[in-house]
Amino acid sequence: MNKNPFSDEIYLHRTHPHQADVRDEYFRDQTKIIHSLPFRRLKHKTQVFFAPDNDHICTRIEHVLHVATIAASICRGLNKSGNWLLNQDLAYAIGLGHDIGHAPFGHEGERAIAACIKPKPFLHEINSYRVVEHLANCGEGLNLTFAVKDGIICHCGEDFATTQLRPGKVPNDLEKITGRNQMPSTYEGCIVRLADKIAYLGRDIEDAIKAKLITKEDIPQAVRRELGSNNGEIISTLSLDLLQNSADKDYIGFSAEKFELISCLRDFNYTHIYHNEQMRQRKETIDKRIADLFDYFRQLFARYQFDYAAYDREGKQTAHAFANYMRSMKRVYSRPEQCDEIITDYIAGMTDSFALSVMEDVILPNSIKFLG
């Protein structure tokens, strides 16, 4: 029977001891994530089509719920095969938390932040770990189990090169991870990594059709025939393929036929959606505006550093809010050389709508108040 390679002592370890209660440890992690402020902000962070006027365009909170339910369903199905022993609550918790540190404006916001802090990288999965371990609860973190944090930091589903996923041979040192070459330490983490693919490929197509970037007829015929032409069909087809192909194996993976179609669909999405001319123009605007925000906050910090009251001299709500943020995070920020770290954390935590309002406040001059 396939089960995770390491002990419960490793998987259930938390940074700070805590009193156990009636909840399963991984179910408890789910509630910690759901009640956190960074999770709540995901409802105003979009996937691909940032700051849309349509309420039915996929938000980041909808995406993580898709991933969590897909991953838990796959665990349930594999357990029924008799060859697997998987924890559905663990998979669901990883799914809920995997994008909790995502920047505003989707992956373009992530790339824009990375461009501002080069050569230091900015990857949303590493930032998601940073949020749950170091930033949430005013710097206390969420105190999640190792297994959930490991699945979060190793979840990246954008890598399409690997067809067979197994846990790493040794438990990951989460504080030392700086890139995307680590495998999760659990099979549940591997499942979330593939559930992420399943969740976003079809949904991005549906959103692109709503945005009139493509039509159903544009989707490659083989994809429509074998995978489906809407999100529900694609999720069902790929989830069943993952179950059937992994049930009697010692790894998690798609069949070769379906994986080839996934690659085809991914290439189609990049060409017709992510690199669409309309999207390119919006991305250029976001890149410039995030760079403007970095410049603005760097100048502010150089002027006032940790003199929180002094920020009110600027006469802008943005300056006041930035000072309040730093004040609330005193246990994390205390050194002037943390300037870019502070700004990165602050901007990455913004929702699309809040980031747009901050950009407007920064760009427009203060209004002149006339007395009398």
CATH homologous superfamily label: Hypothetical protein af1432
The percent range for helix content is 55-70%
Mean pLDDT: 92
Radius of gyration, CA atoms, in whole angstroms: 22 Å
By DSSP, the count of extended strands is 0
Could you please describe the fold and organization of this structure?
This protein is mostly helical. It has a single domain (8-277), classed as Hypothetical protein af1432 (Orthogonal Bundle), CATH 1.10.3210.10. The protein has helices spanning 8-11, 25-34, 37-40, 60-80, 88-97, 106-116, 124-139, 146-153, 187-210, 221-226, 231-246, 256-274, 277-304, 317-328, 339-348, 352-363. The termini are far apart.
Compile the SSE list and pairings:
Blueprint: H1 8-11, H2 25-34, H3 37-40, H4 60-80, H5 88-97, H6 106-116, H7 124-139, H8 146-153, H9 187-210, H10 221-226, H11 231-246, H12 256-274, H13 277-304, H14 317-328, H15 339-348, H16 352-363
Helix pairs in contact: 2-5, 4-5, 4-9, 4-11, 5-8, 5-9, 6-13, 7-8, 8-9, 9-11, 9-12, 13-15
